[in-house]
Design brief:
It is built from eight helices and ten strands. It has 233 residues and is α/β, with parallel strands linked by helices. The relative contact order is 0.18.
Length: 233
């Protein structure tokens, strides 16, 4: 469950204050798939960063799985992210000196997960890349790198997956493959998925679409009901 109560973000721009996100109330039940859409500069990525605890709001409260995160210190927030939130970036952010397998293994070992190596292999298999386990990021296509990044984000089995333009740097074929993986994560694992996207196909898989403009939510609509998603799956 994700809840925002009157959350806003204002920053200094020279001598003036610039409101990137106007006060927003938002409730996302567990297991939902939500797309956040809108033009560049509309506040989409700011919203995602606030939910992830990567940034702090100017006003309001953010509740993740019953925990009010805006009052947490840096160590507590890092611990919560490690256990509850997976994040997928547009530019992959894989460690170039580590293989695909090692990029997934590292967060598992840091968390002390039992059977880390076997789980890392399973995650690679889930995204169809077990045969590329020993390849380094420079030896993988953009689509393959993003699939490794998704597997890494799921390493600790977080109940929430946040993705910022996950198909933004991919061609249509690889983008479609990433869409299928994210849809499967939501359906099969019951993971709450929140996507920032310009991709109509990716937005179309969501149960809810939140449209933003100029730092404000201008429209929220149910695109697919959970029942529809279940029947189509």
């Amino acid at each position: 469950m994700i809840e925002l109560r009157s959350v806003s973000k204002t920053v200094k721009s020279g001598d003036q204050s610039l409101t990137i996100l106007h006060p927003l109330d938002l409730f996302i039940p567990s297991g939902q798939c939500v797309s956040v859409v809108g033009p560049s500069g509309s506040g989409k990525s700011t919203l995602l960063g606030l939910i992830a605890g990567l940034d702090t709001p100017t006003t309001g409260e953010i509740i993740i799985d019953g925990i009010e995160i805006t009052s947490l210190d840096e160590n507590a927030m890092a611990s919560l992210r490690g256990s509850k939130i997976g994040f997928v970036f547009q530019f992959f952010h894989l460690i170039p000196s580590l293989s695909a397998f090692e990029n997934i293994l590292v967060p598992l070992e840091i968390s002390g997960v039992a059977g880390a190596r076997k789980k890392a292999e399973g995650l690679l298999e889930d995204v169809g890349l077990l045969g590329r386990a020993r390849h380094y990021p420079s030896q993988l296509s953009g689509g393959e790198q993003q699939r490794v990044a998704i597997a890494r984000a799921l390493a600790n089995n977080p109940p929430i997956l946040l993705a910022d333009e996950p198909t933004g740097n991919l061609d249509s074929e690889n983008g479609h493959h990433v869409v299928e993986i994210l849809l499967d994560v939501n359906r099969r694992r019951g993971t709450t998925v929140v996507l920032v996207t310009h991709d109509n196909e990716l937005a179309g898989i969501s149960e809810i679409t939140l449209a933003m403009r100029d730092g404000q939510a201008v429209r929220s609509e149910v695109v697919r009901s959970p029942a529809q998603t279940s029947r189509e799956g």
